[in-house]
Fold this sequence. Notes:
Elements: H1 9-18, H2 23-30, H3 34-42, H4 50-62, H5 65-79, H6 97-101, H7 107-122, H8 126-138, H9 142-147, H10 155-171, H11 178-197, H12 202-225, H13 229-233
Amino acid sequence: MQVITSWTGRQADALRQALRMTNESFAEHLGVSVRTVANWRKRPEIRPQPGMQELLDVALERAPDRIKAQFSQLAGEECCATDNQPTFQTEPFALSLYAMTSREWDRDDARALSQSFDAALERSAVDDIERLAHVWLIFEPPQVIELSAGRRVSDALITAVEHRVVQLRRADDFITGSASRDLVRNEQEATIHLLSEAALTDDQAKRVLTATGELAQLGAWVAADAGLVDEAAR
Length: 234
């Protein structure tokens, strides 16, 4: 999640957008005047007073994970924007605002996440990797998305599953602790579910089994690094 040490008007307005609120509804949500909220949008560089900072802290803390992910995306875009340069829409970390706010996470969204993750890994951009890992955790993986349309799955999905294993292995150099464990565990559950529920060809089944084994190995490494010997053995 994006951590804010000192809120600016730009970040406050990013939270409003993530919550999909108007100036009026956001003002009511925080218990402040509409003029204050409008001023954040007009003066993105402004730093709210300490009492207002606390209100924003509480609003972000109480927001659902999906909203926090949307806010992280929007705040990241705004922080990298200048008066003369475009925002992250033309940078490697390029998940669309629609993808972050749509009710259904689809194949195109999952593909955009994968591409952005690859770009962040290539640049060793730790902040982007951590932000994208959070998005990875809270949205449905491609295994679940494709199975929702039927038991037969494409070879493209199997290739995506194999690539996600590679991505997680590389991400382990940048993400540590419970986040890394959760990423691997969730991916293993989704891949095992694919193995048990999908109508796979023999070749697809072999490839998914291989991916499952590699995830188990990666999960053991992550657990061992955390000193969880029993979990690593399992």
